[in-house]
Design a protein that fits this description.
Blueprint (H helix, E strand, L loop, with lengths): L4 E4 L6 E5 L13 E2 L4 E5 L12 E6 L11 H7 L5 E9 L5 E6 L4 E3 L2 E3 L1 H8 L5 E11 L3 E10 L7 H11 L8 E4 L13 H7 L8
Parallel strand pairs: 11-12
Antiparallel strand pairs: 1-2, 2-3, 4-5, 5-6, 6-7, 8-9, 10-11
């Protein structure tokens, strides 16, 4: 079996990068390098290329890109700020140009002055055999600005406690990445195409720490 990792989005119709079979073991977790007719960079907020290993936003240049969003000039202008298309994805790039996606920019959690990638916490929690689905979000907190919160769906017929999740988290993650609260749910909200709606989760639990 030959495995290919492909990364892209609808706006680029849809392929941007590719990791071929020969690099799967050499570059685990990477989505590869830009494909033909696509130029992909990882940049900071000033549109400067980040150093290898640093986190930045993925931006694209390609004739395959859309012209703009239909009847939405403001959104189109924001998406193409600096003459590159802003993906909204955060990633690192190594010294060979291989890109590894870290998180969605809007899903990065800023807690106590530290940045926490929700995806990293989710991957750690998925190692618990009782977890069916998990979404990690940042919720407003009076002390930490945002607090890491995990919303978990437990597999049918199994049980899991908050104490068990926290003990596992402390063993797998740095202290500031460990969830401050665990919420158990019957299901996670998704749109008709099956995409997880983290914004709805943030809205639903926005007052979780309102009492301090």
């Amino acid at each position: 079996m030959r495995l290919w990792n492909l990364y892209g989005q609808t706006e680029i119709a849809p392929l941007a990068t590719m990791l071929g079979p020969a690099d799967q073991l050499r570059k685990p977790g990477s989505c590869g390098r830009a494909v033909i007719n696509v130029e992909t960079r990882v940049v900071d907020d000033a549109m400067r290329d980040v150093a290898p290993g640093q986190v930045g936003e993925i931006v694209h240049g390609s004739p395959h890109l859309m012209i703009g969003y239909f009847h939405d000039d403001a959104r189109s202008a924001a998406a193409f700020e600096g003459d590159w298309f802003h993906s909204g994805d955060l990633a690192t790039i190594d010294d060979e140009g291989y890109i590894t996606v870290v998180d969605r920019k809007k899903d990065m959690i800023k807690t106590g002055g530290e940045n926490v990638a929700s995806r990293e916490v989710e991957e750690a929690l998925y190692k618990l055999p009782q977890v069916s689905e998990v979404a990690v979000i940042g919720i407003p907190h009076p002390r930490w600005v945002e607090a890491v919160v995990a919303v978990i769906v437990v597999k049918a017929g199994q049980s899991l406690s908050e104490a068990e999740v926290l003990a596992h988290s402390h063993a797998m993650l740095a202290g500031f990445k460990t969830p401050k609260r665990i919420v158990f749910a019957d299901a996670l909200p998704k749109n008709p195409s099956g995409k997880l709606l983290k914004r709805q989760l943030r809205d639903d639990h926005a007052k979780l720490f309102a009492a301090g």
